[in-house]
Amino acid sequence: MSAETRVEPQRRRFAVDLHVVGPLLALLALVVLGMSLNDQFLSAGNVTNVLARSAFIGVIAVGATFVITIGGLDLSVGSMSAFLAGVTIIVLNALIPNTGGGWGTIVIGMVACLALGLAAGFLNGILITKGRIEAFIVTLGTLGIFRSLVVWLANGGTLSLDFNLREVYRPVYYGGVAGIAWPIVVFALVAIIGEIVMRRTAYGRHCAAIGSNEQVARYSAIHVDRVRLATYMLQGLLVGVATVMYVPRLGSASSTTGILWELEAIAAVIIGGTVLKGGFGRVWGTVVGVVILSLIDNILNLTDLVSPYLNGAIQGVIIILAVVLQRGRKGA
Amino acid sequence: MTTSRPAPILEARRVTKSFGPIEVLHGVDFALRPGEVHALVGENGAGKSTLMKCLAGYQPVSGGEIALKGEPVVFADSEAAENAGVVLIHQEFNLAEQLSAEENVFLGRELKRGLFLDRNAMRAKAESLLKELATPIDTRLPVSKLSVSQKQMVEIAKALVRNARVLIMDEPTAVLTGREAEVLFAQIARLKAEGVAILYTSHKLDEIARIADEVTVLRDGSLVESAPAATMNPNRMAELMVGRELSDLFPEKLGAGDRDVVLAVRDFSVPGHVETASFELHRGEILGFAGLVGAGRTELMEGIMGLRPASGMISRNGETVRIRDPKEATRQGLAYLTEDRKGRGLLLRYGLRENLTLLGLDRFSGIFVDEKAEEEALDAAICRFDIRAGSRTMPVGNLSGGNQQKLLLAKTMLVEPEIVILDEPTRGIDIGTKQQIYAFINELAREGRSVIVISSEMTEVIGLSDRVIVMRSGRIAGEVSGADITEEAIVRRAMGLEVGERTEMAGQAVHVG
């Protein structure tokens, strides 16, 4: 190791550091902006509100981080969530005469929701791996299928959870432990486990390898298809987890449930520094991305500087900026 | 040389070419004359492609000059060369598969009427050109629907639209059937009659003897001989291509070790690449696989490793095994080092540690990957394989080719395979690193491992191997061992000039199964 070659890597490391702190700086800037615009911004109520609302997208986005890291894409998550919510509500309502209106019923409903999520992820995964169809096409297809199914199940209207059962189920969204809402606790757990899995396990390493260069992964005796399938199933399971928390919030599912969640999830992943073309994923970055998107929404609602109706436009600008910045890093 | 020959249209004068510190062409003189087919032959890596690329403006020369019609010229790029009438037809065609034949012929030189494309004129011209080339196809068909030989004719038509006076063809018949090749030869004869100068490369020496007027032989980047084809024959060409002395680049051979058969492969076929190949590998042996590029050596090994669909029987230490994927191959004690280290071997954006342990990650992970153990393994690998990197975390894409290869070797050896298959282990690396790798391969055999070395470099196969199997067109064409391993013996089998002792081989394989 010669002295002259040692200089370059250090310069590189500094550049990566800048990239790492980028999303954090953006988050900090938003917090400062929010505080200056509204003194209630950092109140416990508002913070809880922001984080709890971002929990659904957040849990889904952790899954999306893995999917994008392996070089894939899942556009179906929003529709899948609506479909799972619809089926879960039907199952719960149907169970009341048999298992009663208590927690037992709700647990069965939750398990059904998670299992169905796994199955939906399996469907995506098997079509992509065994069917050798582009992930974009497969999940665009299932996006349509799941959305259509929930509309059909609801007969074009809204599926509503039995009112009494909803009262029992409510605390899963509105309750909490030690003053922290359940969705926030679940989101935090999923994110921490996700980060550890990505960073510290052979599976996480394999995901990065496959997304980086599938051929190298194959030649390194990695079961590429198996890892892919598992990743889409993980995404399905996490959509199930998000849905389990979402059902008690409104107690209903309709054609508009989970609309555009896939876009928000993918946006959060990209803002967080995961490479869109795969090969490198960062779960904690995704968490920051989710919170950034949520804060923008919140700030627009708290102030009247910009119409909240422009939220989507601002999110769009941020996504494009994030990708431009990613490219800048690659060039550096 | 007779005085009646026309003056050269394109010349290389004392051309040298270096990539980094390595010089690959050493002062080559070469002349193409109108109305002549000039064949350029040499082993893989002899510098044929480099010379062609220098002539056609794809690469600048490092020394010497290129002259067009006697005047020194510098082509800024291949387009400048094309404008001057010098066109290179690559072995892998440069056609836009989704565009039609006529669109491809005029790509970049579209005929226009005002603002719009003059489709009718282009169609008429493309049709007449292809008809002249004895390829009467529907020019509206996308190129993807054409056969390989038809694509080649589209390439030639494309060159003619560019008014090519010099046509450089890189192994045009490598992908053609015998009948298709005949069509090509007829067209070459026609172009020749029209005064086009043709540079032609091929590994099929008999075909060169047939169509070439002049033959130039390159070896290790130097011109060995340039003579009228009439004075050459395939055997003489093969002799000239090889025939160099071995230095002490290679460690002393150990002799074939014992006769335990650790791997027997019988009637092994890889659809489209290998047909009914059978061979055996002994403990502590270095078995060379020689043959031309495309002879099916890589595909055979990838089939054995479960990387390609294949059929046939494999037995390990006398027991029949089924290897469906690389994981099972690893479990059976086999490891394969790919010839494509950038595309299939290493994750170029990742650091040394992640790359080193990717194949053997099981060894470093329970629930979690033990990064400390990985770092220790990297320490050991850096030491054992003499890997020189500016930093352990630098992307391995920034390492030199030699250090990448050493890292790839370290990665492959981390699973402690009993059978190591090395595919072109020294391709594109400098002589010093080559020597290190040769010493290492020798050491593996001394440890009692069995090594298969696929190499297109004759000296390497000869210098390393206890036994050499020669493949030709997807089949095993012969075997030589011990003192019989000579360059000529191998080249003759690889070129199909001599039929090998197949019967003995087959007999052994049956005995083992």
UniProtKB/TrEMBL annotation, chain A:
Keywords, in A-Z order: Cell membrane, Membrane, Transmembrane, Transmembrane helix
Primary localization: membrane
Keyword Ligase: no
Protein name: ABC transporter permease
Cross-referenced InterPro entries: ABC_transp_permease (IPR001851)
TM helices/strands, residue ranges: 20-38, 50-70, 77-96, 102-123, 135-154, 174-197, 229-247, 259-276, 283-300, 306-325
Gene Ontology cellular component annotations, sorted alphabetically: plasma membrane
Membrane-topology annotation of the record: Multi-pass membrane protein
One MF annotation (Gene Ontology) recorded for this entry: transmembrane transporter activity
The keyword DNA repair belongs to this UniProt entry's keyword annotation: no
Domain of life: Bacteria
Record lineage: Bacteria, Pseudomonadati, Pseudomonadota, Alphaproteobacteria, Hyphomicrobiales
Localization terms from the record: Cell membrane
UniProtKB/TrEMBL annotation, chain B:
Gene3D superfamilies: P-loop containing nucleotide triphosphate hydrolases (3.40.50.300)
Pfam families: ABC_tran
Keywords: ATP-binding, Cell membrane, Membrane, Nucleotide-binding, Repeat, Sugar transport, Translocase, Transport
Keyword Membrane: yes
Family annotation (InterPro entries): AAA+_ATPase, ABC_carbohydrate_import_ATPase, ABC_transporter-like_ATP-bd, ABC_transporter-like_CS, P-loop_NTPase
Membrane topology: Peripheral membrane protein
ABC transporter domain mapped to chain residues: 10-245, 256-498
MF annotations from Gene Ontology: ATP binding; ATP hydrolysis activity
One Gene Ontology term, aspect cellular component: plasma membrane
This protein's record includes keyword Nucleus: no
Protein location: Cell membrane
Superkingdom in the source lineage: Bacteria
Family the UniProt entry places it in: Belongs to the ABC transporter superfamily.
PANTHER family membership: CARBOHYDRATE TRANSPORT ATP-BINDING PROTEIN MG119-RELATED, GALACTOFURANOSE TRANSPORTER ATP-BINDING PROTEIN YTFR
Protein name, per record: Sugar ABC transporter ATP-binding protein
Lineage: Bacteria, Pseudomonadati, Pseudomonadota, Alphaproteobacteria, Hyphomicrobiales
